[in-house]
């Protein structure tokens, strides 16, 4: 008996998704709970798993098709006879997976015969049929599909010679992944819709470094997590936010919304792109707890296991370009937040302290902020507050 | 309680009913047209007074026409040909009876409950069924499909009477009118005009529009007009009927044309100016069903009305008034009620005019493509160059195939000639699969067939026709 394969039920914040990948092709046998398809949404990739042992009997939504929440995307047949009419549930863990850039369309060449003109053109141009987006019935490749593929491949306009490559400098066009295009859209929106500017400062990291070398081992022993830099920055940011609630606020229409909590987003780079897991209620967390959350999130992000919940919200974001060696950069706001702090690489530099030139491990700080809500004075003060806390870690303790 | 009640048993309704029942839905079909013994007669306009009887008469009349001195070139001389009109009508009626009775059999086989009476959608997903004796009952259904069809439009300038008839009346003349006037040079007017012209009537077709067959390919309209005039149809374009006077045994009409007001007198007058959707007393005001701005029942792409679980299909909704369009809508709605994902491809609804030769087309014509700014290529092949067409003495007309200038995808196929409808159907199937003209070009066609003209037209699109000279590149 055929069971409906449904896309996962999306959270409210997700309008629709795209079929990223049919891990299992039509007719391919699959064990219970094995992943059969992946649905890419704006935020994460959701997995669809097999309800039992059996096989995918029909694919209704092809790769690249847009699907709604809990929409039927295919049919599943159980291999044994005690078939229950159950619906394939999405796996509970929502995950980010590696981008299936080389998405393969199901059985374009084998089961369904393409038209003769399409096959001729494919053969003449030595094309891989799997790379051509099929529009015909039952996923057949039409001549138009091949012609459009060739036109797109060259990035050239349609002309008589459109089947011949224009030059030997290869170009490859790959459609943006859902995540990438969402990032692209959001970044442009932020640039267009906010009055963003950046203020800079620098921080002497010696006190923190000394603290780490003095207590690092003990900290790790006690708490089972390394004493990093990020925890200090999160605490410093939380304290600064408490002092300047406007930095923690956001604009909603004509209103300013002040958030009575500090949810700090920590930008993490993954193979799919930048993701920003959010440490909720960071103000209630101790340094070891913060370090643990940060470690857990970066591991999850790396393995593509972050849930939508873990990436929603956030009242302030910290981005660390330093891990890649950036000396100075201007971060872009994570809308609708009002400010974002950019950390950078720590570099030993000669600095003048008390009239003497000394070598200190210095880090440039950059804070981009929405000038609509934040005046320069407040922004600069905020950043100076972070600097001061980090340069005198005892301030972190004293809530200064 | 029924899962589905279909109101109307025409080609949209009875197909919807059968498909619904096939899908395991408890289905009834309500039909108000009854025979002498009070049983519902299914088949609607199409089977009873439309497609089928007209085709029966078109064939009979064509045979008569050929026998009456038109077989000499074949070396067949028939001395005396007699017309037995009542036998011709009996044959037609026999076919109608056989087919309509057949639907009863199909209903029984598929377990569709036939209900005779007039169905009306009322609030709360109910159907009020009024019997012939005036009694009525209200039946509840989870889903209601309205398929009440259409009727000939009556115009005030020529109200129906014994001499002024609609298309139904024109299928039932008991003698061949010496002179026949037809108002409207549309599909129905041309087909009925052809029937009676072949049987000996002097036929005049009065058409208000200046353009002949405005919806068809321009070249076909031009060539077919010439051909029909040659066949004896006097077609007066740009002539608007202003009034008619019913005399005892004839009708006198006045019409206005660019040359002023003219009068003509006919034994009979057929008014075939179009059809209107049957929407009167089909749904109550509180049923939730609405009309669109053109007076059809308002539906979405999936034939769903504004009322949930009430659907409408066929002539009573937007789109061409064609049996095959209604039938496919019926299938789509039945499948959607059963939770399946059927879609109608409204871009590929074929049109046919059963004149001799036939006119048929599918997809877009050149005017439409020009209007949409789509670049296209055209391939044409005349039947005069087709061996089979010459052999069967039907070499009038041509096949025209239009495809996209860039992708070669077939965008439209227009045929005037022998078996035009069947040829268009072949192209239509390929179009449903996104075929290019080259696809048809690379397909083998039986020889000798008139279908080869489609093959050659497809080849001609890319200047590769074998049996006719190609355009110079």
Structural commentary:
The complex is a heterodimer of chains A (400) and B (473). With 400 residues, chain A is α+β, with helices and mostly antiparallel strands. Helices cover 28% and strands 24% of the residues of chain A. Chain A folds into three domains: 2-78, Beta Barrel (OB fold (Dihydrolipoamide Acetyltransferase, E2P)); 103-173, E3-binding domain (Dihydrolipoamide Transferase, Irregular), CATH 4.10.320.10; 179-398, Chloramphenicol acetyltransferase-like domain (Chloramphenicol Acetyltransferase). Chain A is built from nine helices and 19 strands. In chain A, a hairpin with a 4-residue loop joins strand 13 and strand 14. The model of chain A is unreliable at 81-111 and 156-165 (pLDDT under 50). In chain B, the strands form five sheets. In chain B, strands 1, 2, 3, 4, 5, 6 and 17 form a seven-stranded mixed β-sheet that branches. In chain B, strands 8-15-9-10-11 form a five-stranded parallel β-sheet. Chain B has a five-stranded antiparallel β-sheet with strand order 18-19-22-21-20, sandwiched between helices. Chain B has twelve helices and 22 strands. Chain B folds into three domains: 2-152 and 276-347, FAD/NAD(P)-binding domain; 164-273, FAD/NAD(P)-binding domain, CATH 3.50.50.60; 357-461, 2-Layer Sandwich (Enolase-like, domain 1). The interface between A and B is medium-sized, with 20 and 16 residues.
